[in-house]
């Protein structure tokens, strides 16, 4: 069997010319593509810059409205059993918490006492509690039990007992029997009423009100706080809360002075 004869090769000069032509064409295409890409990128950057400037302008114009909406979340209800501090305090801190949340417990034991002593008792700060149960049936029962204790003026006593020590989540620490015993220890006088309130529709409606408020703000973990509308997430060090309260107080005083005499009275 014989092999086919080798194909005829073009002259070396023709090969070199064709190679140079291809290379030149590739260089030209690359230059054109690169130029087009650069122009496209520059145009995209310009559009993004314009969009960012427009967004910043729109955000700035709506910031005041958003701040006012967050400030209005402070209920400032006289006789609210789940709040502590003067109803007209210049600073309101709203707290969204779960009684089975370990970080909420840490805040309650380590940070809140100083806030009560240094700011609430001085008339600067009001703290408003919002039930925000995240961890199932026992979290909800604890929330409802705290609300029921509050109906007899013992919310904060129940709160302090519930957070007195770390508790293993969903271990029975907030079973019905346990919360009744906790209510008794907290000083709730009418335990029959407590049991009724614990399972009643009014407590459930109050719980859902708090939960919907937090969910509407995007709260997805606890503890979460609003200090005159400014968010603080997690069990931050006490200095973070002190700084937030002092800044909010200064802003509130400044705004009150800018509004002129009589503005504070007319707003009540």
Topology record:
Layout: H1 12-71, E1 83-84, E2 91-97, H2 102-120, E3 125-131, H3 137-150, H4 155-162, H5 176-186, H6 191-198, H7 201-217, E4 224-227, E5 230-233, H8 238-259, H9 263-267
Parallel strand pairs: 2-3
Antiparallel strand pairs: 1-3, 2-4, 4-5
Helix pairs in contact: 2-8, 3-4, 3-5, 3-6, 3-7, 4-5
Walkthrough of the structure:
The protein is α+β, with helices and mostly antiparallel strands. The protein contains 9 helices and 5 strands. The chain has helices at residues 12-71, 102-120, 137-150, 155-162, 176-186, 191-198, 201-217, 238-259, 263-267; strands at residues 83-84, 91-97, 125-131, 224-227, 230-233. A 5-stranded mixed beta sheet has the order 1-3-2-4-5. A hairpin with a 2-residue loop joins strand 4 and strand 5 (230-233). Helix 2 (102-120) crosses helix 8 (238-259), helix 3 packs parallel to helix 5 (176-186) and helix 3 (137-150) packs across helix 7 (201-217). It is globular and about 55 Å long. Mean pLDDT is 82; it is low at 1-45 and 51-62.
Oligomer: single chain
Main-sheet strand order equals 1-3-2-4-5
Largest sheet: 5 strands, mixed
Portion of residues in helices? Answer: 55-70%
Low-confidence stretches: 1-45, 51-62
Give the radius of gyration.
Answer: 33 Å
| Total count of strands | 5
- Written as H for each helix and E for each strand, in order along the chain, the element string is HEEHEHHHHHEEHH
Distance between the termini: 111 Å
Domain Thioredoxin: 63-250
Region (Disordered): 43-68, 236-268
Protein name: Thioredoxin domain-containing protein
Biased composition (Basic and acidic residues): 43-56
């Amino acid at each position: 069997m014989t092999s086919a004869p080798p194909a005829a090769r073009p002259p070396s000069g023709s090969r070199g010319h064709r190679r140079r032509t291809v290379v030149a064409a590739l260089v030209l295409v690359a230059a054109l593509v690169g130029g087009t890409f650069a122009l496209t990128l520059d145009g995209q950057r310009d559009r993004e810059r314009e969009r960012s400037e427009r967004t910043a302008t729109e955000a700035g114009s709506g910031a005041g409205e958003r701040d006012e909406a967050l400030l209005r979340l402070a209920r400032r209800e006289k006789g609210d059993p789940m709040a502590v501090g003067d109803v007209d305090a210049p600073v309101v801190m709203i707290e969204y918490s779960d009684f089975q949340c370990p970080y909420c417990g840490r805040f309650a034991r380590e940070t809140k006492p100083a806030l009560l002593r240094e700011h609430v008792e001085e008339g600067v700060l009001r703290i408003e509690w919002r039930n925000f149960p995240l961890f199932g049936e026992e979290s909800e029962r604890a929330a409802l039990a705290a609300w029921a204790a509050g109906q007899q003026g013992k919310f904060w006593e129940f709160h302090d007992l519930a957070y007195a020590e770390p508790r293993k989540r969903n271990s029975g620490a907030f079973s019905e029997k346990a919360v009744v015993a906790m209510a008794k220890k907290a000083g709730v006088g009418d335990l029959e009423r407590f049991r009724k309130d614990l399972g009643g529709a009014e407590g459930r409606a109050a719980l859902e009100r708090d939960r919907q408020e937090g969910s509407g703000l995007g709260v997805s973990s606890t503890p979460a706080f609003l200090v005159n509308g400014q968010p603080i997430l997690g069990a931050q060090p006490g200095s973070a809360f002190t700084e937030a309260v002092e800044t909010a107080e200064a802003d509130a005083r400044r705004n009150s002075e800018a509004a002129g005499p009589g503005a504070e009275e007319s707003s009540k």
